[in-house]
Fold each of these.
Amino acid sequence: MKRVFSGVQPTGNIHLGNYLGALRQFVELQNNHECLYCIVDQHAITVNQDPKELREHILDVAALYLAIGVDPKRSIVFVQSDVPAHTELSWILTCNSYTGELYRMTQFKSKSHNKESAPAGLLMYPVLMAADILLYDTDIVPVGNDQKQHIELCRNIATRINNTRKKTFVIPDGRFMKEGARVMALDDPTQKMSKSAPNIHSRISLLDEPNKIKKSIMKATTDSDGIIKFDIENKPGVSNLLNIYSVLSGESIADIEAKYEGKGYGDFKKDLVEITVSTLAPIKERYEEIRHSDELIEILKDGSERANAIADRTMKRVKDNFGLGLKK
Ligand code: TYM
C-alpha cells in the first residue's frame, strides 16, 4: 500500500480553502492507502503563538480531521512535536540544503516581507516540511497548490542525498485537486483564502455559523456584468464562487452556468449559501461531539506511538547512511 502524509498548521480559522484543497483528499485517500495526518505545531511557531491558544488549536485541528471523516482506525492522526524525529531529520536535511534555494521560496519571500531580520524559522520552514514527508517514506502528499514549491524542494533535497550516498529516501509526489486547489479570498479574488486575513468575510471557516456564512457569501466580490460565467481573467470573483459551488455540489461548471443563465448574482449566491451551510453542518456537529472528549486525546496518543515507531525505523537507516552516532 502506498503511504500518504499531510499536515495542517494549528493556527486557527481552518477554512473552505483548506478543506477543498487538502482535507477532503485526506478522507478519499484513506480507503486504499496507509495515511498519516499530522498537526504541524512546530511549523506554527515560525511566527509568534500564544502557548494557551496553540494547545487549543492543536485539538481544534485534530477534532476537525475526525469531523470531516478521517478514521483513526485506518489513518494515523498525531501531533508533530510528539515525534522528536521530525526536528532531528530536519537538521540532517538542513545540512544538505542551500540557502539560495530557501531564499527563493515564494512563501518565505511573502512572509518575511524581504526583511533581513526575518525569523530564521521562516527560512527553514520548508526543510522541516521535507523532514515531515521523508520521515515516513511517503509516496503521496495531498496539499493545495500553494505548497507545490515546497514539495518540489523536498524532492530536490531527497534526490540530492540519494544521488550522493546510499539510496536513503523515497521521492514523494504532491497530489493536487483539479478544482479547489486554490480557493481565493471572497473579498479579493486575487489573493488566496487564508487563515490570517484580518477581514473575517474574506474566508468561510469550517465552523462558521450559518448566518456568518450567508453574510460572507452575499458580500463576496463579483463584478458588474451580472453574468454567471467562468472566466478567471476577467471575472475572478464569479469564477471563484463557481469553483466552490461546483466542488461542493458535484455539478460541473458548465451545468451551473446553464442553470443560472438569465439569472442574477443574488439567486446564485443564495443557492451557494444553502449548499455551503448544508455541507458544513454535519462537520460542525461531529466536531462539537468530539472536540472536548477523552477519546480525542487517546487517538492522538495512539497516533504518536504509531508514528514514532515508523519514524524510528527511518532514522536508524538515515543515521547509518550518514555515519551518525554509534552503530546499533
Ligand atoms: P496550511 O496549514 O497553511 O494549510 C493546510 C492545507 O490547506 C491548503 N490550503 C489551500 N488550498 C486551497 N486553497 C487555499 N486558499 C488554501 N489555503 C491553504 C494548503 O496547501 C495545505 O495543504 N506547509 C503546510 C503544512 C505542512 C505540510 C507538511 C503539508 C507542514 N508539513 C507536510 C504537507 C506535508 C501548510 O502551511 O499548510
Amino acid sequence: MDTTILLIVANSQTGELLDRGVLAPAGFRVTQVGDAAGAVTAMRSSAIDVAIVESAVGGVQLAITLAETYPALPLILIASTEEQTQMLDALRAGVFDFLTPPLKPDAILDVVQRALNKRQRINTWAKENNRRNTDILRQRVSLLETLGKVGRSVTALLDLDEVLKVVVDAAVELTGAEESSLLMLDENTGELYMRAARNVHDDLVNTFRLPVSDTLAGEVVRTGKPILLDQESPKKIKTSYLVKTLIYVPLEVQERIIGVLGVANREQQKSFHQRHIALVSALADYASIAIENARLFENTEIERKKLESILTRIEDGVIVIDANEQVILANPMARAMFKHSKPAALPCALEDCFTHDQLLALIRDGHDTFPYRVELELDDERVVNAQLNLIPEIGMTITLHDITYFKELDRIKSEFVSTVSHDLRSPLTAILGYVELLERVGPINERQRNFIQRVQTSVRNITELINDLLDLGRIEAGFNERKVSLSIKNLLQYSVENLRSPLEEKKLTLRQEVASHLPNIFGDSVRLRQVIDNLLGNAIRYSSEGGEIIVVAKEENDQIIFRVEDSGCGIPAADRPHIFEKFYRASNVVENVSGSGLGLAIVKSIVENHQGRVWVDSIEGEGSAFTVVLPIEKETN
Ligand code: ADP
C-alpha cells in the first residue's frame, strides 16, 4: 500500500522541493495543502501516514494543535533556528521531530523514515491492544450467554431437577472447575445431601451426607458467607473426598440458607479468584429462585387440590365462567344438576357445557343487583336456588342449592292451610249469622251489644285472614287467572279512589308520577289490583301522620316499572330479606298496626305469576320503596 505524506507548506517552492525533489522520487505519495483548514480536510478524506508542517503556515502553534488532535500521527515541523524555544514546546506537545533550513534530502528522508517506523509501531500496538480487548469482550459475551441460558431455564423449565442440572453444568463451564455439586440442607437431620452434581460419581452423589458442624460446606450454611479454598496440598473436606481448590457459596431463600453450591478441583491445581465466587454466586441465586419457585408451585398445587376436593364433595353446585363465556370450573354437583356429564375438559365454551335454557338466560341477561338470586327448575323437576355473583378479574360464579325439599314442604303447608281455612269459613259464617240474629230475638243491654260488636270485629278479622290464605293458595296454585290486556294506569286510579278516606284520615299527601303514555300489560286485573292495593295500603299503614307517598309508573326497556315510595318507619335491614315470606311481620311493626303478614307474600306470588319481579329498598326511620317490574303485553300462561 502507498505511504502518503501530507505537506502543509506556505511556500510552494519548499513544497516543490520536498515533493518532486525528495519524497516522490523515494516512492512516497504526497498531498500538499497551504493552510490549517486544508490540512484538516486532507486528514479527514484520506489515510495520512506522516505530516510535515511548515511553521510559516500557522506558526509552531499549528503543529502543536495538530499533534494534540491526532496523537497517533507522526508530525515533522519545519521551522527556522530562531524558533528553537517554541520547537521544544512542540516536542513536548507530541510533535515527532523537526527540520531546519537548509533542507537536505538525506536528512528529510531520514526523519520521514523514523516517523514511519514510529507510525508502524503505533499501529502494531493498537492492533494487539484491540485483539486483547476483543478477546475479553468475547469471553464476557459467552459468560453472559451462559448466565442468560441458566436464567431462561429457571423460568422455562418446570422440573426442578432439570434446572439444577443446568446450574451445575454452567458452574463447571464458567469456572473451568473439574466438578460441581449442589448440596441441600435436610431440615430433619440437619445434614447436607447432594441434590445435583456434575462430574461426581453416582455412588458418591447417592450416599453423600455431610454434617453442618465441623465441615466447610456446613460453615457456609452457618455463616451465610462464601468460602474460597486454594491449597497446595489436597485438603480432606470429607472422608474420601479430597480437593485442591474449591469454592462454596450459600443458597439463600428469604434470608434463610437452604444449601450450598460448590465447584472443586481434585486433580488440577487451578486457582479460583473473586470473580469465580461472583459467578458461582450468580448461579446460586438462580438455583435458589428455582428451588423457591418449585416450593411455591408445590404449595399452590396442594391448595388447588384441597379446593378441588372441597368443590367436588360439597352438596351445592358451583360454576365459574370467565369474561369470554368460557366455563372455567363446574363441580360434579353442578354437572349432575344440568346433565352435563362430559369429562373435565375445561375451560370450554358455555354452550358446549350447558344447554339448560333458564341457566343460559340467567348467565346472559344483564342484572342490576348482585348477588342476583333466582329459582331454576331442573329437567328432573328438582328446583334449585341459583345465586349469581360477579368476581372482579375472573368473571362470574353461580352457586346452586337444591331447594326441592323446601318447595315441597311449602306446598304441603299451603295445601294444609288452604284446606283448614276452607273448612273454617263455614262455621265462621254461621257464627256471624247467629250473632246478627241475637238482637232480633230479644232485648239486649248496652254491655251485651258491645260484646256482640267485639265478636263481630274479631270474626271479620279471622274471615279476612282466611280469605287471604285462600287467595294465596289459589294464586300459588295458579287457579282463577283470567289474563287480559289491561292498563296499569286504570287499576291505579281505582285503588287510589278506594284509599281516599284512609289517606285523608292520616293527612297523607299522595303524589303520582305516572307517565302520560303507558303500554298495556297482559295480566289478571283482579290480582294486579290486589298488588297495588296491598303496596299502597302498607305505605299508608306504615306512614306516620302528615307524610308523603309517591307512586311512580313508567316504561323502561320493554317493562313497566311501578313503585310506591313512602316516608314511613322503614324496614330494619335484618328483616328486609324476609318480609315477602308468609306470616312474616318485621320488628318495626308498631302495636296499633294490625296485619297478618300475608300481604307481601300475596304481592310476590302475583307478580311472579306475571313473570315480574318485586323488591324493596328501605332506610330504617326514613321510608321504604317497593318496586314492581312487569313485562309489557306479552302472552303468558
Ligand atoms: P302486614 O299484614 O304485616 O302488613 P305484609 O306482608 O304486608 O304484612 O308486610 C310484611 C311486613 O313488612 C310488615 O309486617 C311490615 O313489618 C313490613 N312492611 C311492609 N310494608 C311496609 C312499609 N311500607 N313500611 C314499613 N314496613 C313495611
Amino acid sequence: MDLCSVSRIREMLAENGLSPRKSLGQNFLINPRIPAMIAERSADLARINVSGEARVGVIEIGPGIGALTAELAEVFDRVIAVEIDTGLAELFEKTFADFENVKLIVGDVMKTDVPALLEDHFGDILASGGSVSVCANLPYYITTPVIMKLLESFDPTGKCPFSSLTVMIQSEVADRLTARAGTPEYGSITASVSLRADVVKNFDVSPGSFYPPPKVTSTVISIIPHGGIRERFSDAPEDDIECRDFYDATSKIIDASFAQRRKTLTNALSGMYPKESVASALIRLGKNPDIRGERLSAEDFCALAFQLNTRKE
Ligand code: SAM
C-alpha cells in the first residue's frame, strides 16, 4: 500500500472531493522512511517495560490518509485512530477496511474522554500486562493543548498510563519542551510537562517530507511519563488529596510566573501570595529573592509551592 506518493494522495483526495485543509493542520507525510521511523521508535518504547508476549496498543491522533497508521499496524497489536475530518475518515475507512487491528474513531481529540477511550479500547491489553502509547504527526494548531490534555487526563499522584507519546511537532516547540531553565526557549510548557514526563528529541523532518509542505521544520519527540509529581519532588504530600492540591498549586505558580516573563517572581506571584512570603521562601531555597521564574526548574517550582503552601512555619 503506497500512501506516501503525492500523485496517489492527490488522486485519492480528488476522488473523494477533498483537498488538504490548512485549518486542520493537514500536512500529509510523503517521505516513506519517516512514518516507518516514527512507528519503530514508538514501538521500541512501548516494549521497554513489558514482557515479550505482552500485547502493545497505540492511539494515533489525526491519521489522515493513513501513511503512519499503516506502519503502526505493522508493529502494534492494536491501533485506535482519532480523526476529526469526516471526509478523510470515509477515505480512511475504505483504505483500512481489511485491517483487523485498526479502528477509527471520528471525532475531535480535544473533546475525547481519554481515560474512557483507554478503558474501552485497551482495557484488556492493560489488564494483561501490555502497554498503550500515543503516536502522531500532530496537527500543529493544537500541539501543546493536545500534549497537555493527554498528560493531564490522569491523576498527577501516579504515573500517566501511556508508556510514551511519540509525536511530530514543530522544531521550535520541540526546542521549548526540551529547554533547560534559564535559556530563552524555556517556558511554562517546559516546566508543566516536566511535572508529568521527560522529553527526548528523536530526529528532525524537513518540510519537503510533507504534502503540502509546512513553512517550518518538524521534529519527532518522545514524551515519556515518569511516576508523577511525587517522583519529580520527593517531599510532595503522601496523602493523595493533599498531593493533588499541591500539584494544582505548583501548576498555578508556573502559569503565573511565565504570564509576565520579565517580572521577578515576587511581583509575578503578588496576586497569589504576599511578596514577603515569596521572597523569604526563595531565600530559604537558596535563591535570590529578585529571581525570575524562567530560571527555576520544575523541581524548583515544586519546592517553592511546597514552601508557600505546605510547609508549616
Ligand atoms: N497522520 C497523517 C500523516 O502523517 O500524513 C496526517 C497528519 S496531519 C499533520 C494532521 C491530521 O490531524 C489531519 O488528518 C487532521 O485532519 C487531523 N486533525 C486535526 N485536528 C484534529 C483534532 N482536533 N482531532 C483529531 N484529528 C485532528
Amino acid sequence: MAPVPRRLFLPKQYMKKIEKFKMLIEQPGRVVITTHQKPDADALGSSLGLAGFLKKKGHEVCVITPTDYPNFLHWMSGDEDVVVYSAEKEKEIGQIVEKADLVFCLDFSSLDRINELGEMVRNTQGKKVLIDHHLQPEDFADFIKWDIKAAATAELIYDLIVQLGEGHLIDKDIAECLYAGIMTDTGNFKHPNTTENVFAVCGELVKLGADVSKVSRNIYDSNSVGRLRLLGHALSERLTVFPEYKTAFIALHQKDLQRFNAQTGDTEGFVNYALSITGVRLAALFSDSGDIIKISFRSTGDFSVNELARKYFNGGGHKNAAGGRSELPLEETINKFTNLLPECFEAMEQNKMSYAKDI
Ligand code: 5GP
Ligand code: MN
C-alpha cells in the first residue's frame, strides 16, 4: 500500500483548498511548470515528474526553465520538450505564461530565483501553485504545498499525486524523475533529511518501475574527463582548510573553469569534498563565472548556512545546504567569508539560536 501522505496544503487557510485544487486538476487546461535557475535533479525531476502526470490528466503542459541545466539530467522523460529561457524566446515564453490556466513553481521559494520568468509568473492571471521545501517562502501563490521537512520537492510531488488519489498514474518514467530528485537531495540517502518516509516513497517508486541503478548511473557516473580533472585541480590547488574554524572552502577561478572547459553542473557536489574532511562543519565553494561569484554552502549539525547565505551573500536555501552570490571580485569575496569565520565558529560552538533555528 502506498504511504499515507503526511502533508496537506499549508498554512491553514489553504487546507480547504485541496478540493478546489482537485477541481482545477480535473479540468484539462494549459499548464506551465517552472523551477529555479540552473535546475538540479530535484528541480528538473519534480518538474518532469509532475508534467508526466498532468499530461496523463489531459493537460497541455509546458515545462520552462530559467536557464540551462547539466547534461547528466537530459535522460529524463519529457526533457526534449523543456523550453529553456533565452532573450530570443522571451516573447514566446511570455505568451505561454500569460495564457496559462495553472502555473506550478517547483523547488524554489522566491520569484527572484527564476530570473526573467519571475515577473511573468507574478503577472499571469493563471492560478499559481508553489510546491517547495526551502526555508522562508515568498507569499505569491494561490495554492501552497510547502514542507521544510520534506527531503525533496519530488517527495512532495509524489505526496500530491497520491493525495489526489491518482497514485496509479505514476509510471516508470514519472517514478524515475521523482526518484532522481529524492536521491540527489538526500545526498544519495545520507543526509539527515533521509527519513522513513523517504524510504517508503522510494520503495513505492521502485515498485512502480524506477530503475535505481539506471538513475544512479545517469546522474553520478556520467563524468566527462574535463570534469574529473577540474575536480582534481580543485582538490589539489584550490582547497583551503581552517581547522581552527572547522571550515574548508574551494575557490575556483574563472581561468580554472576555462582551462577545464567547465559545463553547467560540472562543479555540483564539489563542496561536499570540503565538508567531508574530518572535523569540518562548514564548507563553501566559490566559483567565478566571470560575471558573479556563485557560492555553495554546506554545514553539518545546527549551524545554518541558510542564515549565513541570506544575511551576507544574497542567497538562501536549507539549514545545511544553501547557495548565494557575490558581486565582489573572487579575492574580496573570499576575504569577506574568512572575516566571518570567527563569528560563524562561535555560533557553531555555542549553538547560538540565531544560527541554530530552522526558519
Ligand atoms: P547549491 O549549493 O547546490 O547550488 O544549492 C544548495 C541549496 O540552496 C539548493 O536547495 C538551492 O535551491 C538553494 N540555493 C542555491 N542558491 C541559492 C540562492 O541564490 N538563493 C536561494 N534562496 N537559494 C539558493
Ligand atoms: Mn530540492
